[in-house]
Amino acid sequence: MDHQSFYAGTCFDAYRHQGAHREEGDVVFRTFAPSAVRVSVIGDWNGWTETPMEKEYDGNFWVCRVGEGLPDGTRYKYRIWRRDGSFRDHCDPYGFGMELRPGTASVLRTLEGFPFGDQAWMAGRTDRKNGPLNIYELHLGSWKRKADGSWYSYTELIPMLIPYLLENGFDCVEFMPLSEHPCDESWGYQNTGFFSPTSRYGTARELMALVDACHRASIAVILDFVPVHFAVDDYALWNYDGTALYEYPHPAVGYSEWGSCNFMHARGEVRSFLQSAAHYWLEEYHFDGLRMDAVRNLIYWQGNPERGENQCGLTFLREMNQGLKERHPTAMLIAEDSSAHPGITAPVEAGGLGFDYKWDLGWMHDTLCYFRMPQEERKKGSDALTFSMDYYFNERYLLPLSHDEVVHGKASMMQKMEGLPEGKFPQARAFYLYMFAHPGKKLNFMGNELGQLTEWSEGGELPWALLEQEEHRQFQRFFRDLNLVYHYHPALWAGDYGPKGFRWLAMEEETCLFAIERQGRGERVVFTFNFSREPGELTLELGEGVKLQPLLDSDNTVYGGGSLWEEQPLEGEKGCFQLSAPPCSGRCWVVTEE
Fold first, then answer.
1. Which residues form the Glycosyl hydrolase family 13 catalytic domain (predicted)?
2. Catalytic annotation, pick one of 127, 224, 336, 496
3. Were both Cys, which of 7, 167, 243, 471 would link to 35 (CB 3.0–4.6 Å)?
């Protein structure tokens, strides 16, 4: 680690120097605590008594060497003495492991030497801009649980999760934050160990094994990363050396809306800490991308445009993204951003923030608003369905139906559909087909594919028993078939970010009838939708000499609908097609030459 780079906020490898590392058979402990009076390391090997640390470099770093042959799993902390004569015992900010809560000690972990077998995957990896990207967002602790309610480990999930993803047509999994966190209910978004995979599910090497297994099965893996704030627990980063070392000292900007501490991105040491953490997950674990949480709160002070832009936060994002892309050009950098700030996915050299993708939260909000509307209101409310294409080409968008939409009284995705329970399933099928017809990469939270009727809770597993009911099995089958149609038809993803990849064929607002054409790599796919409860018919001009080869019908009887889907191609008359549209349904066809 270059110390001047660390102070300047341009360092991406601080974790290779700080923390606990094996060197020539010993373990060397280093920590950055410039305002400490003295620092000691305490742990299992010395009975939690103090082994003094010495000042290093400019006196702001502390170091000691322990030669007792400490094994992996050894617990330790730093005892940091303050100017007022008091002390706090802190976990290691750069520690590679922590003990299971309610324990708060760091744990020795060896990262080197894991036998990754994903060389072919890493060599051929892309950022997916010109390919399919269908993300399954997952909370590891509540996807499935053991019979006694305990968690599966990272490695125990491999034979269950990977076949499930493959069978259901997902090509990418996104893990909600796996950095260590003390409170299950935070879902990992309030961290205490930014370099420590949570011990809830095992060790660092077990997590490496999970990522490696996904890659061997051609599944990309994205990790949620939290660069905005951290947990207030006093054993972690808060007041680390007796002063506000990582956080703002003033409460007006020091505490976030979630009750956590905001990182002070004006400090070079803090930027180096976070950049190094981002690089660490991509480099050491082979993650294929990072979804960065709460980007709005880095763009604006406390996420509020009225308080003005946070220039230090913007500089941090630009420099971090640029540095990560230099080191990992094929990794995906994804912004969870609810602001209207321009240039989120524009290159840094062009004045943008350098992300590959931005979550289209406007599309999510407006589209769900449309499907909540009573049928009569939809006739006057189609702007909620179509407005997204008015701004779509301003950024590279990803369409998210994430965990945030199925918690805190917001209802499950299925519950959001208007009407009585029996009418929700056909609407949900049409809704999801519309999602996949719309340009942009896709993300769905676990359980969406089951037609889940209750909100998600981290306290238990998904309601897998739903699949004992026919309507939920049929819905899951529809979701799987939709994923496969998306994967195998380049018209649905190759033209995501070019104006030739999408066009409206019909927008009949009063009858809630719509039609879309997608194009890509020489393929054309046509979608028709009827979002009313009355049968309808659409007339489409598609050009002479073409036929329509059926792909998918959301009203097919195999999915619980009422239509017997014809598999024979449809022939128009001089390029004109009369297409029936059952109530609350969507259909799609490949356009072929006669």
1. 137-485
2. 336
3. 243
